[in-house]
Amino acid sequence: MSFPWIRTIATTALVAAATTACGPDQQQPASQSTPTPSTKAVVTTPTPTPTPTGVAELDAKALFAKAKAAILAADSVRLRGSVVEEGSKTAIDIHLTKTGGQGTFTVDGSPIGITVIGKTAYLQLSEKFIRAQGKAEKDTAAEINATVELLKGRWVKLTKKDSDFQDMIDLVTRETFVKNVFQPSGTLTKKPLTTVDGVASIGLFDGEGTLWVDSQTGRPVRIEAGTGGPAFGFSDYDRLKAPKAPAPDSVIDGKQMGL
């Protein structure tokens, strides 16, 4: 499946980066300890699997509906992969649960962390990200160091929709994730039963890319954006803990920054 968000995810992260340039008058959350989960793209080559079982006999439309319902029914799920856009690599690691979500968007090795609980989002930029952005904006070393030290280990609380970060917020919010991601670009057709990431899966092809679905449970296994395009794997169903809000003393009110 082509899924518009796959083609634009790097742009989303880069736009966010551009709006958070570091300087003495632009406070940004920074931390050397920002968690950077593994974000290796899923590149396993599918291999044929002989016998269809479970939901494999459903037609394409019914199987697609089953996959969407499976994501919403799961207590949790993880999505990992990466994409290269205009020479810039963005790796993502998203955790979705019924009560909240969190993700790390790593742009050329510099992570941006985001946690969403209900209608509140918390944004954190790593020290590496801040230094890279400060350098790009030609800030002085003293300005960059001051920003890093002032906001070390802190998060910015976003309490309203912000166009610069909303796409990332939507991607770590389960309902909007499903609504925005599961959008075929054309008529769905089924691909033969195949082993994908160790799971017997049925492919749903929309003319550009493929969503691979577990032939037993209907749960998404992997999504591929066309031949040679980015691939993202689904894993850790019902294994993740719901995210918690950062400690109050580590949070900066985004209203103070116009967010």
Structure, explained:
24% of the residues lie in helices and 32% in strands. The chain has six helices and 14 strands. Strands 1, 2, 3, 4, 5, 6, 7, 8, 9, 10, 11, 12, 13 and 14 form a 14-stranded mixed beta sheet that branches. The two termini are 34 Å apart. Residues 1-23 form the signal peptide. Keywords: Signal. Residues 23-52 are annotated as: Disordered.
Task: Please sum up the structure shown.
By secondary structure, this protein is of the alpha+beta class.
Descriptive labels:
disordered N terminus; 259 residues; 14 strands; alpha+beta; signal; 14-stranded mixed β-sheet; 6 helices; 24% helix
- Mean pLDDT across all amino acids: 80
Major sheet description: 14 strands, mixed
What multimeric state do the chains show? single chain
Helix-strand pattern: HEEHEEEEEHHEHHEEEEEE
Q: Which geometry do the CA atoms define?
A: elongated
Total beta strands: 14
* Strand-residue proportion: 25-35%
The share of residues in helices is 10-25%
How many helices in DSSP terms?
Answer: 6
Distance between the termini: 34 Å
Keywords: Signal
Signal peptide: 1-23
Region (Disordered): 23-52
Protein name: LppX_LprAFG lipoprotein
